[in-house]
Amino acid sequence: MADVTRAAVPINNRNIISPSRESRNTNEIPFDFQDTSKVKQATPNSDMQSEANVLRQDGSTTGFYEILHDQDVTSAFLTNIFLLKEIVDILPMNNETQTKEMQQLLNNLTLKPEEIAGEMMRQEDMTTMFKGGLFDMLRGMIETNQQQNEGDPHAVREFQNTVSNFLKALNNSASKGNVYDSVMNNMSYIRELVDASPKLSTAMDTLLEKFSLFNGETNNLQNTQGFEELFMQLKSEALETFASLEKSILYNDEIAKSVSMATYNLSRIALSDDGISENFQKLLGLMDNEEQKESLTNLLLGFLEQNDHVSQSKTMNALTELIKKQTENPELKMLNSESMNKIIQSLLSSPCNFTPLLHYVIPVEYEDMNASAEMWINPDGENDVPGGTDGRKMTHMLIVFEIGDVGKFETELWVTDNDLTVSILCPEEYTDFYKDKIRDLRNDLSFSSYKIKSIDVDTLSEPRSLIEVFKSLPERRTGINVSI
Known about the structure:
It contains 17 helices and 6 strands. It is an alpha+beta fold. A 6-stranded mixed sheet has the order 1-2-3-4-5-6. The protein starts with 46 loop residues before the first helix and ends in a 15-residue tail after the last helix.
C-alpha cells in the first residue's frame, strides 16, 4: 500500500497576515456615475449597444458624440450623393431595369434653381407639426394665462399641462401611421435574422402579411373605426411570436433589440382618437371666453380635416427610396457602401433629440455643374454665444456650400433683431475676392430691413463639425424645441 496517496492536513504559513478592511468615510460618494470604468461593459458581439450606452465626461453617449464631432456630417453628405450618381452612370448594374430605377431616383434628388425655395419650405414643413393658426393661438393663450395668473403658479402649471397633454394626443394621432411602419420595419429585419429557421421564418412571414393587410385596410391607420378588436388580436399574436423567438438558438442581441423596439412601438399605437377630444374638452374647461373657445374649436377642426398638413419633400422622398433600394440590392451595396453609410450618418444631424436644429438639404444640378448646400439653424442661437447675449433673442445658422470644381464654402450667420453678423470661410484662392466684395454684399441687402453689422472673410482650412459651431448642442440633447 506504499503507493497509495495519503491525505494530509494542508500546511499553512502561519506568518500570513490577513488584510484588514479599509475603513470608509460615510460622507464620501460611493460611486461616480460618470466614471464607467468599474462598470461591466457590453460583450464584444454587441458593439452597437455598447456605443449607445457609454457615457462621456460631458454626459453624452458615444453615438451622439460621434455625430456632433464628425466633420463629414457637415461636408460629405451631398458629395457622396453626387459620387454615387457618377458610379451608377459609369458602372451600370447587371439588371438594366434596376440601373434605370437608380438613375431616376438619383435624378429626382437634385433640384433646378427655380425649385429651391419650394423645396426648402417643404423640408421645413416636415420638421414639426406644431405650427399654424391652431398652435399660434395656443402659444398666445399660454402667455396670456401666465400674465393673468402671475401670483398663482398652480393655475399656470395646470393650464400648461393641459395644453401639453392635448398636444401629445394630437401628435400621437398624427404619427401612429409612422409608428406602425416602424413596427413593420423591425419585423422585416427580424425576419432576415431568423431566415435559417423554417419555423420562425414562416411565423414572421405570416405575421408580416397580416400586419401589411391591416395597414392596407385601414389606409395606413387613417380609417380605423371598427378595427380596434382586430388590432388587439394582431398585437397579441405579435407578442406571442416575439416570445417564441426568445426560445430559439438563433436569438441574439440584434433580435432582442429589434423585438424591444417593436414591442415598445406597438404599445404606443392607439387607434382611437378619443384622447384628442378628451384633452381638448379639459382645455376648453379652463377657458372663460366663449368667442375664444369657438375660434380654437374651428382651428382644431380645420387642422384635423387637413390631412396633408405635412408637405412631401422631393429630395427627402427620393433619398428614402434610394436608401431602401441600396438596402435591398446586394449589387448596389457593393458599388459604394461607404458613401451610403456617410449619407445615413449625415441624416442623423436632422432635427431629433440629438440635434434639435432645423436642417435643409439642397442638391442642385444646373446645366453641367453640380452644386449643393446644407443649412443648419438654431432658433435659440443665444445659447451658442459664450456669456450670452444680454437677454436678446438670436438665431444662429451654418450654411455649407460646395460648387463643382470650385470648392467648399462655409457661411455662419448670427441674426439679432435685424442685425446680421456674417463669417465666410472659403478656399484660399477666393479669400481676397470676397474681401473686395464686402461692400457689394452690404448693398445687396439694401432692399430689406436687415443690415450687416459685421462681416469677416477667412480661409477654410478644414470642415468644422456641428459641435464646433453650435456650442449648446450637448446641453440640448434631451429634447426637441417644439417652438420652431
